[in-house]
Write a structure and sequence with these properties.
- The strands form 2 sheets. The chain has a two-stranded antiparallel ribbon with strand order 1-2. It has a two-stranded antiparallel sheet with strand order 3-4.
- It is 65% helix and 4% strand.
- By secondary structure, it is mainly alpha-helical.
- A hairpin with a 2-residue loop joins strand 3 and strand 4.
- The longest helix has 29 residues.
- The two termini are 32 Å apart.
- The chain is elongated, with a radius of gyration of 18 Å.
- The protein has 6 helices and 4 strands.
Length: 209
Amino acid sequence: MTTLGVAVGVALALTACGSTSSSTSVPPIVQMTGNSVAEPTPMSTSIHNSTDTQFSQMMIVHHQGAVQMAQQAADRAVTYEIRALGKRIVADQAPEIELMSGWLTTWGESAPSGLDGARDTGMTHSSMQVDGMDQSAATANLNLRSGKDFDRQFLTLMIAHHQSALDMAKIEQARGLNADAVKLSGNIATSQTAEMDEMRSMIDRLARP
């Protein structure tokens, strides 16, 4: 499956789940203070729709796959900057997994757990495609490589992986209801776009004699 195929698949999954649950019929409660808006009250953090739920469930599994590949890069890459990137991805995305898992618990929704995801959410690594491979195949592919060949393939796979995260983030930004989830989707879009540019530059440098 191409990156375009990933985008279409993700878009269909999320746009099909854009309806608002009965718990979201009341808008978030905020306190107006002069010209500013105070932080939402605790009650408002439970306000969400099915797009928020699907985004969080899918992004948890997606992040788990990224962390798995990034840890390989941190341990095995021969290029210092790629090892550093792997460590940074693990440090950035592991806390986001915990954050989104907490939201799902608060919302009374099922949260994926473990590297294979929770079966009752329907979100598993076999349903996540990375450059035409599911997560297990992508990891196995990296295991077969070494040296600069490993570094190059890691970057290629992670760029495709980041692109599918951007596709999910765009849909959450457009159709999500929960303010925290929408904010996180924006942060993911910004940080992973920058990392994609960084990784393309790394690939160019690897190609130099």
